[in-house]
UniProtKB/TrEMBL annotation:
UniProt keyword Transmembrane helix present: yes
Keywords, ordered alphabetically: Membrane, Transmembrane, Transmembrane helix
Name of the featured protein: Uncharacterized protein
Transmembrane segments: 14-33, 42-61, 73-91, 98-117, 123-141, 195-212, 218-237, 244-265
Domain of life from the UniProt record: Bacteria
Provenance organism: Craurococcus roseus
């Protein structure tokens, strides 16, 4: 099965791989240019900008209020990139400003992913989703400290969706995530909150798509795989030690949910 076979017939006929290439080009251009200008703190935003460009090329920017979760991802990545840039300039390295900005971006991003409810009744119904998106993003952003970790997280999710085979563009969107994170490697300074938070939001939204759509057990374990790798991978690596400790730790942490996904998908 190819990526083209997973592309819904009702969506614009754009080659899925073009988004992957756009994400790589945008991330490389931003990270490389800002590193050349000696602004590695801003160069780290290349991953989020790459996601915005790649997902926009893949899905197109909505001309009306997006209703489906996938349609919300390009604007989420674009808005997260802008918010990260604003935080980098306005926070000034002060902890309370960073915390205030991060909380605002986290709440706004979770609200957007949950459907952007405005009426009080709709907001109450979406409250569980908002809290879930916020918690998943916080977990991811805490561990997304470098483009290497972001690339690994999106690669684990790509492998998980390859095994689970959800319908829709999720496999292609995960490939865009890998490309965008990989393209940010020229600005490889340790990521700060403004760089990690937008990518964490995008990872949470991408992982939730098939869970909210189809919601099989395999979808749940697949969605958990990148968060398990991010949360438990460093701990396992520290216990294992040695030159191969990091790789073995991450493979172990992410591999267990991948194995469960494969068993569940095979038994379906």
């Amino acid at each position: 099965m190819t990526l083209d076979a997973l592309w819904p017939a009702s969506w614009p006929t754009i080659a899925p791989w073009s988004g992957v290439l756009a994400a790589l080009a945008a991330a490389l251009a931003w990270a490389g240019a800002l590193r050349a200008l000696h602004r590695r703190d801003l160069a780290a935003l290349g991953a989020a900008l790459g996601l915005a460009a790649g997902w926009a090329v893949t899905l197109g920017l909505p001309v009306a209020s997006p209703r489906q979760l996938a349609e919300r991802l390009p604007l989420l990545a674009a808005g997260g990139s802008a918010a990260g840039l604003a935080m980098a300039f306005l926070a000034g390295g002060r902890a309370w400003r960073v915390a205030l900005g991060a909380g605002t971006v986290l709440a706004a991003g979770a609200w957007w992913l949950a459907g952007a409810p405005t009426a009080a009744a709709d907001l109450r119904r979406a409250l569980v989703l908002i809290v879930a998106f916020g918690a998943a993003t916080a977990v991811a952003a805490q561990e997304l400290r470098s483009p290497a970790r972001a690339t690994a997280a999106f690669a684990v999710l790509l492998a998980a969706w390859w095994i689970a085979q959800p319908t829709g563009p999720w496999l292609v969107l995960a490939a865009v995530g890998v490309s965008a994170a990989f393209g940010a490697w020229p600005g490889c300074a340790p990521w700060t909150v403004p760089a990690a938070l937008p990518v964490g939001l995008c990872l949470a939204g991408l992982a939730a798509g098939p869970v909210l759509g189809r919601g099989t057990a395999a979808d749940w374990t697949a969605a958990a795989a990148p968060f398990a790798a991010l949360s438990l991978g460093p701990a396992f690596a520290a216990r294992i030690g040695g030159k191969a400790g990091a790789a073995v730790g991450w493979l172990t942490a992410g591999g267990v949910p991948l194995l469960l996904t494969w068993l569940l998908a095979r038994g379906a």
